[in-house]
Sequence to fold (317 residues):
Amino acid sequence: MSLPTEPRKLIIDCDPGIDDAVAVTMALFDPRLEVVAVTAAAGNVGAEQATANLQALVACLDPPRLPRIGVAATDAALPARPYSMHGADGLGGIDLPRVPLHGGHASEKVIWEAIKAHPRQLTILALGPLTNVSRVLKRDPGIAELIGAVVICGGTAQGLGNATPVADFNFFSDPAAARHVLAEPITKTLVPLETTGQVVYDLDFLERLPREFTRAGRLLRPMLAHAFRAHRQLLGCEGIRLHDVAALVAATDPDLFERETVAADVETTGDLTAGMLVIDRRRNRVWRPNADLLVACDAVGVRDRVLKGLTAAGEAT
Ligand code: BDR
Ligand code: CA
Fold:
């Protein structure tokens, strides 16, 4: 008889964002996880909106265990973005009731305190620009060795970006932070765009979401309907990709992914290449290996996992 395993402690640092919101929904009702905190970062939307979205999401879902919520820093400058799939408010205009702020703490403080409270046990799932994680490491460099692992939704190893021709949105939004985190002595898993993008959801996904009378369904159905419309109008695609959701599955179900150990860095200055993930693939590689890159996934397995996770969120709400 196998002993029950302790749920894995997780912080989700995110910039909601529709795919961020779906990932948060799944994680909050996953019995294999203890979501210690969810922390906001500026990215898909500005700092105040990101914080407001995260607070509203948690309040609306009302999970059995309430995570701490971190407030996004308002001094992080974001580069201009040509278009957004997430709508002006980041959540497809679903008009969630705003929740008043009760003296929230800065995301970097919440992350720092959680790492200190759970040394070597916490996984940080970074679904937005790496601004907060970088700030925590700058504020207390010794903390790197207390972080269990970081799973990062970011980068493109094949030079097919979504923010620029060569950069994914998260690395493009704060290249210096991405470079800093990759250089730190932490166990890192990179989930790049071409791998998260292997999982495509067709229109029938909408039918399989939790029903409207559940809290999760009320939230997800209009948000994802917006995502389908935006993908059609802006990209000419009938199917959608939910990058952050695939990154969550990479953290919970790593066996669904193929990995390669790589030596990776991020370009910070190029006019055309800022935010580009650069991998040393030379035969006589000079850089030291510093991350696991997830190069492929079992797309059907990931999609099934997501449907199961969302069904569980529906049943619990
Ligand atoms: C990232 O882009 C954002 O729009 C998504 O939320 C995801 O985190 C992938 O590049
Ligand atoms: Ca995101």
